[in-house]
Amino acid sequence: xxxxxxxxxxxxxxxxxxxxxxxxxxxxxxxxFVRSTRANPVAPFSWFLDxxxxxxxxxxxxxxxxxxxxxxxxxxxxxxxxxYISGSPATHAALGARLSALSGMRMCLPDYRLAPEHPFxxxxxxxxxxxxxxxxxxxxxxxxxxxxxxAGGGLMFALLHxxxxxxxxxxxxxxxxxxxxxxxxxxxxRLDDALNDPLLPFDRVRELRDLYMAGADPHDPRATPLLxxxxxGPPTMIQVGSAEMLLDxxxxxxxxxxxxxxxxxxxxxxxxxxxxxxxxxxxPEADRALAQLAAFVSGRR
Length: 301
Fold this sequence. Notes:
Blueprint: H1 3-22, H2 26-37, E1 46-55, E2 58-67, E3 75-79, H3 93-103, E4 106-110, H4 122-136, E5 144-148, H5 151-165, E6 173-177, H6 191-196, H7 205-213, E7 236-241, H8 247-259, E8 264-269, H9 284-297
Helix pairs in contact: 3-9, 4-5
């Protein structure tokens, strides 16, 4: 483990985790998330375009992150993390631009609705609208890649389940970074993983889940994709750190996908924290992870 990763884990445990343990106001969490990502380095020759993705009479705002390296019709439809109550395309714009530069694909980040103002199933409804909108615009399904991190990774898998249920054309590939895939909490995070996590506070998980679900059944596959149908699904890549409570979510999701015949690559990065890829440009492990991810989504591996 490099010294930068060691320092990052220490800093997250001392500052970020302490903050997340005590702050409960969604508005305050959203503002702090924006501030924490404002200085993230942006890949040179990148630009950002606002858009509105419409399908079936519904519209979802979105942000395109496009690097000069992007060519052709390939697009990554990416869902940001934030526990379904925070995060936005703005917090993940730099990550999107870097992936665009590395993969040669355009990045589209939907601004899906957040709880508690818009509880479940607003987010998966918006995700499906965004995918239908890309199809309606003529993007070839096999040139669409679905991605997401944390709650956005779970939302991406929920969308993949809904695509299968609606018998829509499948995307070419999918990937998830530290996805939250089990909102039932029937098994809950493994205690060792929870204690090892330098960022996410274990005692806030159920509270966050309840805020998003607002009394709905978490066994719905649109909330817990670990219970979803993925037969006929595309090749999948999951990156997760060994130092996070969602490690078991990723392992079980990979096993569930494989049991349904999906080709899965699960990469567990030693001592990496939750969605360490957000530290691209500053953390060598983040840059290596994104390079491997870009090779996967662009079909170079």
